[in-house]
Design goal:
Oligomer: single chain
Low-confidence stretches: none
Radius of gyration: 18 Å
Distance between the termini: 36 Å
Number of helices: 8
Structural class: alpha/beta
Helix content: 25-40%
Number of strands: 10
Shape: globular
Length: 277
């Protein structure tokens, strides 16, 4: 990996989850979007623990930390309409009413990875939604740049954090472009679709065995993160998503590391104050 954590850990350990929630809350982060690979998967069991630690955090500090799942559309257990429907019903039944599950204006929120990847279609998602959320009682955020997603989903987010804008020196224009597209969609359709701007400290997946199309977004000792946040804030987003808290394999983490220490959590704290202020 491009860097290592200051404290090596197992993601399933309660002590790890407690520490990560505390670190995130102290940096002004209001919840995690937790990679989720299906019912009964280790990621599912860890999400259950995450909600419990958020409850403890609120009981002891008063800080409300509300998380949701990142529905990993490419996960083997989530392949095909039937599996997706049953998995979403599981999430709704087990988590959506939890007080530490992320809600927006009273509605539980789900994030979906690459909905149109691997042959998935909008009509497929429309069918799925009609089965599990026919009254649009939830908010579904789609990962991607295609505004056609908004016909089924309630907003867009960019796991990529529009890194090409950082590379080309025009991230503010790129983020504002997405804001403008969603505003135009809302005006045309009388909707309230949500723009979630992404921020990125850097990226490096070149060490992942067998992966093709790898690339690097240099961190430049925090300059990249500064530019990313500046662009995101200028686009007046409804939400800001951070890629990522601890995706070590892809080199996008802000969790304390051997090389950077607490730099990125400290920077995050400054910017979350601006966003929430």
């Amino acid at each position: 990996m491009s860097d290592l954590p200051t404290i090596q850990y197992n993601s399933s350990d309660d002590s790890t989850i407690e520490r990560q929630v505390t670190w995130a809350a102290n940096a002004g982060i209001t919840g995690f979007i937790s990679s989720w690979w299906g019912p009964g998967d280790p990621t599912d069991k860890n999400f259950d623990k995450l909600l419990a630690h958020a409850a403890t955090l609120e009981a002891t500090t008063g800080y409300h930390f509300a998380s949701t799942i990142y529905f990993e559309s490419d996960a083997p257990a989530l392949s095909g309409t039937g599996n997706i429907v049953s998995a979403l019903r599981y999430v709704i039944a087990n988590y959506s009413n939890d007080p530490h599950f992320f809600h927006w204006h009273g509605k539980p929120v789900l994030f979906f990875w690459d909905p149109l990847g691997n042959g998935r279609t909008l009509s497929m998602w429309a069918s799925i939604r009609s089965q599990v959320d026919p009254n649009n009682a939830m908010i579904w955020s789609a990962e991607g740049t295609d505004t056609s997603l908004l016909s089924v989903f309630d907003g867009l987010h960019l796991f990529s954090a529009a890194y090409w804008g950082i590379q080309n020196g025009d991230i503010t224009a790129v983020d504002q472009g997405f804001r403008a597209k969603i505003d135009a969609y809302n005006q045309a359709h009388s909707t309230q679709k949500i723009w979630a701007a992404g921020v990125l400290p850097g990226y490096d997946d070149t060490r992942i065995p067998g992966r093709t199309g790898t690339y690097i977004v240099p961190r430049n000792n925090g300059t990249t993160y500064n530019e990313s946040w500046t662009g995101a804030l200028a686009s007046k987003p409804d939400w800001i998503t951070i890629t990522s808290f601890n995706e070590w394999f892809e080199g996008s983490m802000i969790e304390p590391s051997i090389h950077y220490g607490n730099l990125y959590l400290d920077m995050t704290q400054q910017y979350t104050k601006q966003f929430q202020g």
